[in-house]
Amino acid sequence: MKARTLSRHLKESVKSLGRNGWMTFASASAVTVTLILVGVFFVIMMNLNKVATTLEQEVEVRVHIDVAANKEDQKALEKKIQGISEVKSVRFSPKDEELDNLIESFGEEGEAYKLFEQDNPLNDVLVVKTKDPEDVMKVAEKIEKMEYAAKVKYGQGEVEKLFSFLNGARNVGLVLIVGLLFTAMFLISNTIKITIVSRRREIEIMRLVGATNGFIRWPFFLEGLWLGVLGSILPITLIAISYNYVYDYLAPKLQGNFMEILEFSPFVYQVSGLLLLMGALIGVWGSMMSVRKFLKI
Amino acid sequence: MIEMKDVFKKYPNGVVAANGIDVSIKAGEFVYVVGPSGAGKSTFIKMMYREEKPSSGTIMINGINLAKLKTSKVPLLRRNIGVVFQDFKLLPTLTVYENVAFALEVTEEQPKYIKKQVMETLDLVNLKHKARMLPTELSGGEQQRVSIARSIVNSPKVVIADEPTGNLDPETSWEIMNIFDEINTRGTTVLMATHNKEIVNKIKHRVIAIEGGRIVRDEQRGDYGYES
């Protein structure tokens, strides 16, 4: 294609947005509504996932080593645990470290436990992380059967509840996103139906004077692109501003609860990029759908 | 120039609109296509610019067989054929100039050439002074002149008109006919479907009458032949 033709298509597509003022408004609005819904939802989903991941990462199996075990028994146990396929890492935490942690976790009152430094009653511990946090139950069971594993702890009961909640939330999210996508398709294809009627004459005339299908498609392609981009401005602004507020409000409250939400940067930029891309795709898709019908010779 | 042989056209709903048409039109001819409504005039015309494809038979225009023409080549055919309609088919959002220039823009001509060609053509149809107006600001006759200008701006060898005076009053119709005559005297073949008895009987040209999808009459300098 000649550069002159491309510039003609560009000019034509921009002019056409103005000429079809109300149609432009209607189509861009459809994109806007869709993107606001998708955007808000996406932000919630991603944050839920972030919280879930941080929580999951806290999940570990603590294996108390029997005091009767000597150094070699200990090494053997560690090796055995490492041999379980679901295990990601095993860290040895000597009983002195365990006591320090305990003292620290009690704060000032922990001072009292310093007395035990002479005669530490705690066990040495192997801290086991699994590749998939949901495997902790399975791994814990296996370790329990091993020799010199005195006690195996992974927050029994709590962990199961947490996982069932997170899985539920993710599934609900998935269902909602699929539903949302269907709504979006419906919304946009309806707007397009209206647009078709007003544009069929234009396409008909282009065909009559000998425009190739490619030539006819170009301005519509670009127009769809502009529509999508126009339609994504408001959702992006809205999400950026409100996320800023929500983050400032929520982040301090969540701190110390093992929970974290995604920081403004780069998350909001990523979401913005995604919305822009989706808007452009939706716009182009809608526009191309409407032209296609009239290009069959 | 135009050669139809044994052309049949049956629509999916069973209507037979062309039932064995044989006709030959030489370059530079002016031909009226007449006949009652639903006789197959429109199909006859539409097959000429490949809006409809014949079910069987051959249609040769300038040595190209339209029955076998690939869909992707249709735009190239259309650039050599100007088409004028009863309802003008102008784009209401474009000015007179832009509507005419449209036909040249699609062929990716030089801007300079487009400007020169459009202004010359608008001059031919006496609308140079209204180039910046919108079609809605023009009378019916003027709108039809714009549409004629668009059909001839790329100097096609054939101009096909489907009831070009159908929406116009008698006086304006004569103006339009004068323009078609002018185009014809410059060497362009003109094919015109019409219901206008006065025009056909007064401005004498070849008349092809179609009834029931067949050519029932073909006379040089013929009459309209029907009660209007």
Automatic annotation (TrEMBL), chain A:
Protein name stated in the entry: Cell division protein FtsX
Family, as annotated: Belongs to the ABC-4 integral membrane protein family. FtsX subfamily.
Metal-binding in keyword set: no
Residues covered by the ABC3 transporter permease C-terminal domain: 175-295
InterPro entries named among the record's database cross-references: ABC3_permease_C, FtsX, FtsX_ECD, FtsX_firmicutes-type
Main subcellular location: membrane
The protein's role, per its UniProt record: Part of the ABC transporter FtsEX involved in asymmetric cellular division facilitating the initiation of sporulation.
This protein's UniProt keywords: Cell cycle, Cell division, Cell membrane, Membrane, Transmembrane, Transmembrane helix
GO CC, one annotated term: plasma membrane
Domain named FtsX extracellular: residues: 59-152
GO BP, sorted A to Z: cell division
Superkingdom, taxonomy of origin: Bacteria
Compartment(s) of residence: Cell membrane
Segments traversing the membrane: 21-45, 172-192, 225-247, 267-288
Taxonomic lineage of the native organism: Bacteria, Bacillati, Bacillota, Bacilli, Bacillales
Mode of membrane association: Multi-pass membrane protein
Pfam families: FtsX, FtsX_ECD
PANTHER family membership: CELL DIVISION PROTEIN FTSX
UniProtKB/TrEMBL annotation, chain B:
GO function term, MF aspect, one: ATP hydrolysis activity
Keyword Cell cycle set for record: yes
Domain of life: Bacteria
Coiled coil: none
Keywords, comma-separated and alphabetical: ATP-binding, Cell cycle, Cell division, Cell membrane, Membrane, Nucleotide-binding, Transport
Domain ABC transporter: 2-228
GO biological process: cell division
UniProt key word Ligase: no
Major place of residence: membrane
Function: Part of the ABC transporter FtsEX involved in cellular division.
Subunit relationships: Homodimer. Forms a membrane-associated complex with FtsX.
NCBIfam families linked: FtsE
Family from the record: Belongs to the ABC transporter superfamily.
Protein name as it appears in the record: Cell division ATP-binding protein FtsE
Species name: Cytobacillus solani
Source lineage: Bacteria, Bacillati, Bacillota, Bacilli, Bacillales
